[in-house]
Amino acid sequence: IKCMKFDYDLIVIGAGSGGLVVASGAASLGAKVALIESEKMGGDCLNSGCVPSKSFLKGAHLAKDIDSSRLFGLDTELKGVSIEKLMGRVQEVITSIEPHDSVERYEGLGVEVILGSGELVDIHHVKVGEKVLNTKNIVISSGSKPYIPPIKGLDQVPYLTNRNIFNLTTQPKHLIVLGGGPIGLELGQGFRHLGSDVTIIDQNPHLFAKDDPEVGPLMEEVLLQDGISLHLTTKIVEVLTNNGQINVIVEKNGLKKEIVGDYLLVSLGRSPVTEGLGLEKVGIKVNQRGYVITNNKLQTNFKNIYACGDVTGPYQFTHMAGYQAGIVIRNSIFHLGAKLDYSAVPWTTYTKPEVAHVGHTEVTARESSVFNKSILIPLGDNDRARAENDEKGFLKLIISNKNKLIGATLVGEKAGEMIPVATLAIRQKLKASAFLGLIFSYPTEAEIFKTAALKELKDSVKPWQSKLIKSLFLRH
């Protein structure tokens, strides 16, 4: 193999967020790269994920703001909603971004783009149609798709997923959402803001199970106040249709109930896109859920075959696919031995208010035996939040036993925009007191980081120190 001449330095399977970064990055460094894509360039993020959902949510959240505007002395009302126009704008946004991810752009960057399905023949050969390509390294970046569980009757009814919901031209009267994860919550709340009745069904006792425990109850209260019907700790038994309506049979505490709506959204998690890739034939190991197993250098059990993005499983975010792609480039091209560092992974759920998080939660910090204390500041303590009626939220900082900041959770209208302040502090291994040295514009909600740092400083003063300080001041 050492003497073998390869046609490519790198073949990338999948032109989603991770694959595009690997292909363009490697090609810009002089590597000969082939990029294989079986569907649309840009993958899930551009075509049915981040871009369309945030475009849709902008309109939905505007509807909520109009509904709340009387608080600010504005005599306004939402006279109507054109789902057709709203979704038309969603498609316009996708179209405007498409050139950035297009075949033409990547060919211009020196990448050979091949449209078709790639299948591994062995660890150095990939088949596309009738053509077999040989390469030094392979990167599997095939992404994920909506997980469709074997619920009785589900395969017999029409249902929506994130892949087709943005093609709607009629507004649901009653949208039933199976699953209370980020996609279900964002889209469910969005349609509720637009005037649809919405029911969300989830088997967990609380929403936001991966976030700090204060988040779930607060956001459940917000969703209930929005008029959403929540069915938690609830099992989905059967789905069927009757006279054009969709009936969902659920069970809670041994009692069965029927929920009737006109549209059904299935958002019960994701599953890896690996079928037809030839992983089993080559011997690439996957876990029980089918995700490709990698080491901390993102190598599979074959050193020249890498994987990144959703297909690897742990953090299915566009920004993580991009981060992992950087690791792959450094290791496959330069053999630098770059390793993953998941100590400061941020994520945001784009509900209203947003829920943003980075690093450890209190639960994971305790489990890792690095927890010292937490600091929680209600958003209502912040002047800008009060001025803008953004008081339903909080900042929670997690402090390690070395007094370093190792985690943060933020709930508020601007949470996703503010969480990088904590991300940087965690990456730089700073103490919460570092925020005291920053000058924040007044009034901004980001000032809540300084408020938290002041509280941490006050709480850390020992009784004898407090007495000493008081005696020094009294002396003067």
Name the CATH homologous superfamily of the largest domain.
FAD/NAD(P)-binding domain
CATH class of the largest domain: Alpha Beta
CATH architecture of the largest domain: 3-Layer(bba) Sandwich
Q: What's the average pLDDT?
A: 94
- Low-confidence parts lasting 5 or more residues at pLDDT below 50? none
Amount of beta strand: 15-25%
Number of helices: 15
Given helix and strand content, the structural type is: alpha/beta
Shape: globular
Task: Please indicate the count of domains.
Answer: 3
How far is it from the N-terminal to the C-terminal residue, by CA? Answer: 82 Å
Supply Rg. Answer: 25 Å
> What is the CATH topology classification name of the largest domain?
FAD/NAD(P)-binding domain
- Secondary structure tally: strands: 21
Largest sheet: 7 strands, mixed
Question: Helicity range of the residues?
Answer: 25-40%
Structure explained in plain terms:
It is a single chain. The longest helix has 19 residues, at 50-68. The protein is α/β, with parallel strands linked by helices and 476 residues long. The strands form 5 sheets. Strands 1, 2, 3, 4, 5, 6 and 16 form a 7-stranded mixed β-sheet that branches. Helix 1 packs parallel to helix 9. It folds into 3 domains: 8-41 and 102-145 and 271-333, FAD/NAD(P)-binding domain, CATH 3.50.50.60; 154-268, FAD/NAD(P)-binding domain, CATH 3.50.50.60; 346-461, FAD/NAD-linked reductase, C-terminal dimerisation domain (Enolase-like, domain 1, 2-Layer Sandwich). The model has no long low-confidence stretch (mean pLDDT 94). The protein is globular and about 85 Å long. The relative contact order is 0.11. It has helices at 17-28, 43-48, 50-68, 83-97, 103-108, 182-193, 215-225, 279-282, 318-333, 362-367, 383-387, 415-418, 420-427, 448-460, 463-475, and strands at residues 8-13, 33-37, 111-115, 118-122, 125-128, 131-140, 144-146, 174-178, 197-201, 229-231, 235-242, 245-252, 255-261, 263-266, 270-272, 305-307, 346-349, 354-359, 371-378, 394-400, 405-412. Helix 7 links the parallel strand 9 and strand 10. The chain has 15 helices and 21 strands.
